[in-house]
Amino acid sequence: MTDTTDSSTPVSRRLNPHKVGSARAAFHVRDFRRIWFGSFASNIGTWIQNVVLPVYVYARTGRASFVALLIFAQLGPILLLSIPGGVIADRVDRKKFLISMQAVQLICSLLLALFAANNSPIWMLFLAQLGVGVGNALNIPAWSAMLTSLVPPSDIAGAISLNSTVINGARVVGPIIVALLSQWNVTSSEFFAINAVTYLFVIFALLSVNVPAIAFDTTAGWRRFTFAFKIARERVVISRLILTLATFSLLSLPYVGLFPAIAQLNFGIESQSATYNWLYATWGLGACI
């Protein structure tokens, strides 16, 4: 029988029976699969905290403005540190850097649990949440680069689609878990502690996989920093995508901080009720659909 296998095809591709570029092909890669499960567990914890923290702060203060400050502490660092984080990711050992950023977020989430358990001043919660935001902002560029390095170039599209299911799926599962556990009187501080534990899933996943080494970029940091702006300015498609995402975030994301107040004042739904948590879950469910 004539061997019809293309000898130029990489061994990893010949052993992968799934369609090139599909999500199943990416999921067939062992290291990517481990990272996916660890990331999914951690993101569920993140969305548990995203649901509980605004409700906790609103219940204590009765002011949506304080909730907005907490959301800014979480998301603001992404605006300021994403590009510097990308520069750092090109100059350090990504695996060690990612583990350290997960550890930072774990510690800050434990501090949130401690502060909530002791009804500490709101500014202490703000600092802990800011630590989570900084760790996440520096983590994102290195994480994105690592994900694409775990699969063959032909399967990157499938890996990206699976990464999207992690985010949207966690937005559904997280609020549902909060709704279920709230019936057993799980406290806000205990929810924050649960989130802290979920970071261990990512850390263990990172320790168990082989992250491909990269050639360290010796370009001066400032030149690397400004190069991103140069690319965005020269390539119309990229600049339009950035503008679209910025506009969407500016106009739509504030509702995250306002959600407890809107649910209570407009719909008569108590932010600490199971109905509120199920309502929150519909956001992620819509994204999945």
- Mean pLDDT over the full residue set: 83
Supply the CATH architecture. Answer: Up-down Bundle
Give the SSE order as H and E letters.
HHHHHHHHHHHH
Overall geometry comes to globular
Question: What's the CATH H-level homologous superfamily?
Answer: MFS general substrate transporter like domains
Q: Using only CA atoms, what is the Rg?
A: 21 Å
Outline of the structure:
This protein is 78% helix and 0% strand. It is an all-alpha fold and 289 residues long.
Describe the structure.
The chain has a single domain (21-288), classed as Growth Hormone, Chain: A (Up-down Bundle), CATH 1.20.1250.20. Helix content is 78%, strand content 0%. It is built from 12 helices and no strands. Helix 3 (30-61) runs antiparallel to helix 4 and helix 4 (64-89) packs antiparallel against helix 11. The termini are far apart. The model is unreliable at 1-14 (pLDDT under 50).
